[in-house]
Amino acid sequence: MIRTLAVSGYRSLRDLVLPLEQLTVVTGANGTGKTSLYRSLRLLGETAQGRLVASLAAEGGLTSVLWAGPERIGRGVREGRYRVEGTVRKGPVSLRLGFGDEHAGYALDLGMPSAENPFPLDPAIKREAMWTGGRLSHASIFADRRGGLVRLRDAADGTWREAARDLSPFDSMITHCADPLHGAELLLLRERLRDWRFYDALRTDPQAPARRPQVMTYTPVLASDGSDLSAAIATIRAIGDEDALEQAVDDAFPGSRLSIEPGENGGLALRQHGLLRPLRPAELSDGTLRFLLLCAALLSPRPPGLMVLNEPEASLHPDLMQPLARLLWQASRACRIVVVSHSAALIAALGREGEAGEIRLEKRFGETVAPDVDPPRWEWPKR
């Protein structure tokens, strides 16, 4: 599982290396870079989907997401003796993303496209590397990409072979050089990244997809917008941890229980003590629906390697912070979880249930920093 996240040159993340625990909470005041950190993780996941360029285009292109400050912030600036002023860039334009664990690591270096390229806002992949062990070194690299040339090292005798010579600057070696015969390690990495899940658009408004009638079908993974909530809950009840689901619902709404109404277009219903009939998703309050969506995501019968939730406390009553904390700890037994939140109540509730890794972000001279974190060792592959 991912244990280290490294980001350089992305928005306010000038140079940040962070450790990730089994359950990690990222917090900080508004504008300190929490969303940028969330997006950087999502960009890594998009690489394996072949959507990296499209994702950056949706943010305005490479030039819109690059670190806008100086390459280095000198001591005189930090001490207030000098102003931050324009400087001549010494290094190349670079946006770098990477992650690692005790077994392997991966890094990606994006830069400006060539002058001949008709799409000047699209990033070009200048360097990619994948290595074994916890630290990058010349001996540990087994997949290496420079420009359009991709080479893979044979695990048996250590010899190198070409996997691609003219790979497009917009295509990753993860998506174009991974095959079971020659690029098995890249294939494994690609599947690990594709397995990451991100939830930041679980709507609960009157037009929310989760409130609409749904066709019931096998759904081990809740959609990112929660549109298949009923089917996801039914799948947990059929092949997942139904006891954990019932416990989470009763913890949040004492005396309540979920049921699945019969019929082809049947769906989720919440039975509450004192009511003569169950409530369908269209009738549920925003907070109740939100909690059920989180139950469906976190108790998936097919847990991912990494799940990232952006402000899961939205729409929830303060009384639901402790049940949510218990639900998060329950889910973290099966997968690594990163929670981005500014809710002091949720953070306190998590602390009462266990010792989560907490990353508190601050903004200094426009740069996002984590002053309380001892950063893991990390080295970027050179161009």
From TrEMBL:
Q: Which is a Pfam family this sequence falls into? A: AAA_21
Q: In the record, what terms sit under GO molecular function?
A: ATP binding; ATP hydrolysis activity
InterPro entries reported for this sequence = ATPase_AAA_core, P-loop_NTPase, RecF-like
Gene Ontology biological-process entries: DNA synthesis involved in DNA repair; double-strand break repair
Residue stretches making up the ATPase AAA-type core domain: 23-347
The superkingdom listed in its UniProt entry is Bacteria
> Could you tell me what this protein is called?
Predicted ATPase
Can you name the source organism? Answer: Aureimonas jatrophae
